[in-house]
Amino acid sequence: MTKMTVGQPIKRVEDKRFLTGRGKYTDDINRPGQTYAYIVRSPHAHAKINGINKAAAEAMPGVHAVFTGDDTKDLGGIPCGWQVHSKDGTPMAEPRHPMLAEGKARHVGDPVAMVVADTREQARAAAEALEIDYQELPAVSDTGSALGDGQPLVHDDVSSNLCYDWIIGEEADADAAIAKAHHVTEIDLVNNRLVANPMEPRAAIGEFDESTGEYTLHTTSQNPHVIRLLMGAFVLSIPEHKLRVVAPDVGGGFGSKIYHYAEEALVTWASAKVGRPIKWTADRSEAFISDAHGRDHVSHAKLAMDENGKFLALKVETTANMGAYLSTFAPCVPTYLYATLLAGVYTTPIVFANVKAVFTNTVPVDAYRGAGRPEATYLLERIVEKAAREMGLAQDELRRRNFIPADAFPYQTPVALQYDSGDYLATMEKAIELSNYESFEDRRQEAASRGKLRGIGFSTYVEACGIAPSAVVGSLGARAGLYECGQVRVHPTGSVTVFTGTHSHGQGHETTFAQLVADKLGIPMENVEISHGDTNKIPFGMGTYGSRSLAVGGVAIDRALDKVVAKAKKIAAHLMEASEADIEFENGEFRVAGTDKTTAFGDVALTAYVPHNYPIEELEPGLEETAFFDPLNFSYPGGCHICEVEIDPETGVTEVVGMTAVDDFGRIINPMIVHGQVHGGLAQGIGQALLESCVYDESGQLVTGSYMDYTMPRADNLPSYTVDDHCVPAAHNPLGVKGCGEVGAIGSPPSVINAVLDALNPLGVRDISMPATPMKVWQAIQDAKMSQAAD
Amino acid sequence: MASVSMTVNGKSVSGDVAPNTLLVDFLRENLRLTGTHVGCDTSQCGACVIHVNGKSVKACTMLAVQAEGADVTTIEGLANGDQLHPMQEAFREHHGLQCGFCTPGMVMSAVDLANTIDNPDEKTIRHWLEGNICRCTGYHNIVKAIEAGSKAMQAGKQAAD
Ligand code: FES
Ligand code: FES
């Protein structure tokens, strides 16, 4: 009998190649005859391009071609995959997003030209010889003021820079509840702009085979089929059967590698023009000005309560920065992935949100780990913590009074979503226990004796992932379906290759999915190969983001396995001369129920391909099945993160001394991988709260354009984490799984800031914005001292 | 063009490079040893860490010609045939990697740490990794892996003595 692997911390199958330097990332691949592209980018935030003189660049050694917007203007623009409508029913403003600037550059980094040469160095040298006549224009980069009178227009045809003005809920109901509430807590928040910064910079290799007319693109993508669809159908008009997209090993994504980017289309298109493969690899500095950024919200919120602290209504106004153009999923992030989560884990009966999305002269903003849900959680958990202080209640007590109880599921929120399952009180109780919350005051006093300020902060959250139901997302503006595809190919000798439309760029699918297959078929994991990332191999797929791989893609594989077993049972019944209804399948063995007559899985597989003794009239030979899975609902992980910090009031330095996360992932296939995902998310959440910020100056220059200025979390900025779970199976998929990729980044930021504010509360500090850098903390302490002295 | 020779993973190699060719580019492009990665252009990320004469070096901070005559080890040269180096094994055992992009640099840096300081504690490890960025793991399991890998290397050394 093979050992069951589901639920076990099985070591990862993929590790060996990465540990020995044998991973194959896009930039590790060289194609025969390959040339190199250099993308010339606008150094200005906003500029008219009066002319480009290519002559000198074209004459440089090794140069094959120089392309500008004039060459690509008849091709499609980079498409947006989601259409949001404003409250008056009008569709969002959707200005053309050209591959190469057409007469105007709209952000620092906007591609203006592409030089193709024999070597990288030659392409770069020729780029410097390109004469571009820019006429600088005034720019707007600040989210909060983009709609203001007299602001420069990012797109001449989009008045007042407004992309859409969207609402959810009934404003009048919220206003009425607020007007008669016992207490109303108000808050102003900025959710800081971040750069995803996967360690592998983006890269792409385009190539054209003249003999077959087929294009191949190797690219650093989380979803090669989506790229094939967007680029083939909307930008370059290449039909699917003539376009292959391969996403090999990819070095992290965190959202930033979901989107279709201009460079992918440029190298693909130009490879036919030049007649040679073309490779482009981003420098890190280039990544900062060309990878889609994340977050960037400015919000004002009001929370109405009765005398017991029961939440009566929440009203939120948010301005969300879209950047200069609409990236693939950008419009849905601050709407359907944000405002629909504003009920959070609470029974708030009335929620109203108004979201205005604005264009600015900055890099496009799109989903970054969590996407919308971290922004919702940050807003809720900050205002709830503030409300607790104002009401004189402990941070856990106010939450207890408002949690959706465990017996209330399925729970319909006032903002469209229906949560399937969860137990928010239980996750909080467990986190309270693991974080030693009860003895916190002792630690605070001990820290005080060393001159340190210690604080503890909570965040209790729910998120929606496993993205998901096509009919729902379609009605909300998605221009694609969001199901997933799995194909199981049983080979004649009984080994199995699984083709999945999801993509692994760190998540360990080659292990988790193999566990599912091994257990279901009763075969060793070594006999299972998981294949992903190549549109010529995989039937179809929507890729990996929104913590969907297992909850959607894993279920598709599971369904395909069911079909395989069903067919195999028919073959086994024939072999054992029994009725199909009497066949049982367990541990890789088919058995005639109640007898000791058995046949092994491998024998059935062989029979399927060598059908000498076979029910050929009723059954086709072969053993290969495909399934598509489109769930009826999202999945809803939730949990509680508790952060403990110590602040040095002399320097403003905040040290995270404790980070406890208890999450509900639904059923867990591999706890080692799941907890590893949480660790990574927590680091990004702590990063957002204390270290990371993407800053533009008033002229639209990116101030934080390298690792010298953008503070990436490093090992010595972070603690070891206490990670555990309390799981309630998901109700909308047969595996009961919920998702784990984003929870760390969603739940943790407000817990960190709440801890900082808890530490600073005795000094009178009531607010601090992310990232709470030493400078900001120190300044807040000084300001509080000044105002206390003045009182 | 300048010609350069060195020992890489125990083999003598030579090649013609531009005087400004970085060592990392020589390894990746001339020798096609693509396990050494490039994650930044400001020498901050550590994805490119290799050993030059036994000490960890960021291969993007060194010119190929500066490695003339040097003994270079890259991630491809660390395992003993099919048998992983104890530090590689510890990363696997403790789930110290996810996407794998930072991993070669992390492992090479960790091996140098274990060679330099006996049984480093968590604080020492975190401090040592100041020059290696990982965006996936949150460092928690990397730190655990390096603690265990250092112990295993120590034990291996004692067994050999
Ligand atoms: S490539 Fe980043 S430090 Fe060398
Ligand atoms: S494992 Fe992905 S960057 Fe470290």
Features:
heterodimer; A: 791 residues; Aldehyde Oxidoreductase, domain 4; 28% helix; B: 161 residues; Ubiquitin-like (UB roll); DNA polymerase, domain 1; 2 domains; five-stranded mixed β-sheet; binds FE2/S2 (inorganic) cluster
Describe the structure.
The complex is a heterodimer of chains A (791) and B (161). Chain A is α+β, with helices and mostly antiparallel strands and 791 residues long. Among the domains of chain A are: 17-22 and 36-131 and 202-281, Aldehyde oxidase/xanthine dehydrogenase, a/b hammerhead (Aldehyde Oxidoreductase, domain 3), CATH 3.90.1170; 142-191 and 292-400, 2-Layer Sandwich (Aldehyde Oxidoreductase, domain 4); 483-629, Aldehyde Oxidoreductase, domain 4 (2-Layer Sandwich). Helices cover 28% and strands 23% of the residues of chain A. Chain A has 19 helices and 30 strands. Chain A has a seven-stranded mixed beta sheet, with helices on both faces. In chain A, strands 7-17-16-15-8 form a five-stranded mixed beta sheet, sandwiched between helices. Chain B has 161 residues and is α+β, with helices and mostly antiparallel strands. Chain B folds into two domains: 2-75, Ubiquitin-like (UB roll) (Roll); 86-160, Orthogonal Bundle (DNA polymerase, domain 1). Chain B contains five helices and five strands; from the N terminus they run ββαβββαααα. In chain B, strands 2-1-5-3-4 form a five-stranded mixed beta sheet, with helices on both faces. Chain B is globular. Chain B starts with a strand and ends with a helix. The model of chain B has no long low-confidence stretch (mean pLDDT 97). Chains A and B meet through helix 1 and helix 17 of A and helix 2, helix 3, helix 4 and helix 5 of B. The structure holds FE2/S2 (inorganic) cluster (2 copies). One FE2/S2 (inorganic) cluster sits between chains B (97-103, 134-137) and A (199, 251-252, 506).
